Here is the input.
Amino acid sequence: MTDEKSKKNPKEKASSPKEPAKEQKSEAGSQKAEGSKKKSEKKKSSSVDNKKKKSTEKKPPLTQKEIDKLIVENADLQAKTKEVQDNFLLLAAEFENFKKRINKDQLRTKELYKDSMLINLLPVLDDIDRALQHHDKDSEISEGFSMIRSKLLSYLENYKVSPFNVVGEKFDSEKHDAMLTRAVEDEKDNIILEEFEKGYMIDKKVLRHAKVIVNIIE
Here is the structure.
């Protein structure tokens, strides 16, 4: 019995020392890992310190030639900038003037078209006036012509077109065309005696000049 126990005990004693060896190996590995971490941290800190040193290092001062060169370059840039700004302002002003001219031309074209359209209606009124002179006022024909005339006049009034009277007024070349002259002693000189064709105004502008006979006393 004692021999069997003695045989078993040595095996148990031999197996028990193996466990501390494993623990020693793991401790050694952890120490190596910690050492590598510390080395990497030291490298990082040294690189950061180097960067800080480089940033804190003062750059050498510029020489006078470099300063003069920078001054010349700055002056050139300012001159070019001013030239570009001036050209831009000039182009902007020209474009604004161009737009104004275009708008003015468009308005003028519309006015000319409107004036020509309205002027073409005036001979119709002239014919109606002549027809009324040759018919009795109470006749049906005169009434029909009078209705047409009033409608045409109301249409023209929508465009601020209206006839103006000239007989007895002083001759004005801006409003009248002198077709003939007469010498009537009883009338004042340069006075309109008769009217051949009625004149019309559009707003404050002459749409058609009145054709008249002017009294000229020599």
In short: Residues 1-25 have pLDDT under 50 and may be disordered.
